[in-house]
Write a structure and sequence with these properties.
Blueprint: H1 2-21, E1 31-34, H2 40-52, E2 55-60, H3 63-71, E3 78-81, H4 87-101, E4 108-111, H5 127-155, E5 158-162, H6 176-194, E6 200-206, H7 216-228, H8 232-238, H9 240-252, H10 262-273, E7 280-283, H11 285-295, H12 299-307
Parallel strand pairs: 1-2, 1-4, 2-3, 4-5, 5-6, 6-7
Family: Belongs to the short-chain dehydrogenases/reductases (SDR) family.
Protein name: Dehydrogenase/reductase SDR family member 9
Keywords: Signal
Length: 319
């Protein structure tokens, strides 16, 4: 009996692995649109999918980013300048894409554009500190999706939303985690709405990677700038030693990040080309072995492990 049970498990594992390897055909006929292609995941994705034979339309924020990308890719790849927070810019881009893809529609939409914003304790911040990452990471993503959605429905294609482990666990104050939590909610509702149209919606949750977005030096500079404008009361509660140690800790994260950006692009590739794509992808060792498992744990355990890494305040009772 045990032998047959083991054989069944091995067979199921084989079939599951085989199923995941089945790919779509004729990718050279398919168009994909990627946001945030100046650097990082988006840039590597645009170059990778161009080499694979897709018709890539890469959205860049800057002219310099667009020029550099076109210099490294084939004539198939087109770029468009796009600020995802500008509704009129997004509408014009969607119309331009519609003219490019014609009746084929848009096979893939990869919502990758995002920013980190300020990472600092919430009681240091104003509403404005939250606004920019929410505008880019959430409303920008929704705006692009809604404008491109008719084209994706026409192709019965794929939508891939790049979220973050920050959408599963809030590792710091500021607008980043709230924006990514909201992306997860939008992704889930969109996935269910689009099933009837044959559109598959996937979410990628990268861990900590070495990109411009997660540059610890820039994050430390922003945190220090906020500190300098805090009230004397807040500074007394936290103490000068807090800001010094927390900046050192922030800069020290550079040694723990994933260096291989292709781990995220491989998730995009599977979500785009597999006959049986997954709904969620975790990218990076830290995401798979720490952040995602911890997100399923009780809050008391989450708080214990995350608070162990926090720098102690000088005088939290000075209120």
């Amino acid at each position: 009996m045990l032998f047959w049970l083991l054989a069944l498990l091995i067979l199921c594992g084989f079939l599951w692995n085989y199923k995941r390897q089945l790919k779509i055909a004729n990718i050279t006929d398919k168009y994909i649109f990627i946001t945030g292609c100046d650097t990082g995941f988006g840039n590597l994705a645009a170059r990778t999918f161009d080499k694979k034979g897709f018709h890539v339309i890469a959205a860049c924020l800057t002219e310099s980013g667009s020029t550099a990308l076109k210099a490294e890719t084939s004539e198939r790849l087109h770029t468009v300048l796009l600020d995802v927070t500008d509704p009129e810019n997004v509408k014009r881009a969607a119309q331009w894409v519609k003219n490019q893809v014609g009746e084929k529609g848009l096979w893939g939409l990869i919502n990758n554009a995002g920013i980190l914003g300020v990472l600092a304790p919430n009681d240091w911040l104003t509403v404005e500190d939250y606004r920019e990452p929410v505008e880019v990471n959430l409303f920008g993503l929704i705006s692009v999706t809604l404008n491109m959605l008719p084209l994706v429905k026409k192709a019965r294609g794929r939508i891939i939303n790049v979220s973050s482990i920050g959408g599963r666990l809030a590792f710091g104050g500021g607008g980043y985690s709230p924006s990514k939590y909201a992306v997860e909610g939008f992704n889930d509702s969109l996935r269910r709405d689009m099933k009837a149209f044959g559109v598959h919606v996937a979410c990628i949750e990268p861990g900590l990677f070495k990109t411009n977005l997660s540059d610890p030096e820039k994050a430390a500079e922003k945190k220090l700038a906020i500190w300098k404008h805090l009230s004397p009361d807040i500074k007394q509660q936290y103490g000068e030693s807090y800001i010094k140690k927390s900046l050192e800790q922030l800069k020290g994260t550079a040694s723990f990040v994933n260096m291989d950006l292709s781990l995220v692009v491989e998730c995009m590739d599977h979500a785009l080309t597999s006959l049986f794509p997954k709904t969620h992808y975790a990218a990076g060792k830290d995401a798979k072995t720490f952040w995602i498992p911890l997100s399923h744990m009780p809050a008391v355990l989450q708080d214990f492990l995350l608070l162990k890494q926090k720098v102690e305040l000088a005088n939290p009772k000075a209120v």
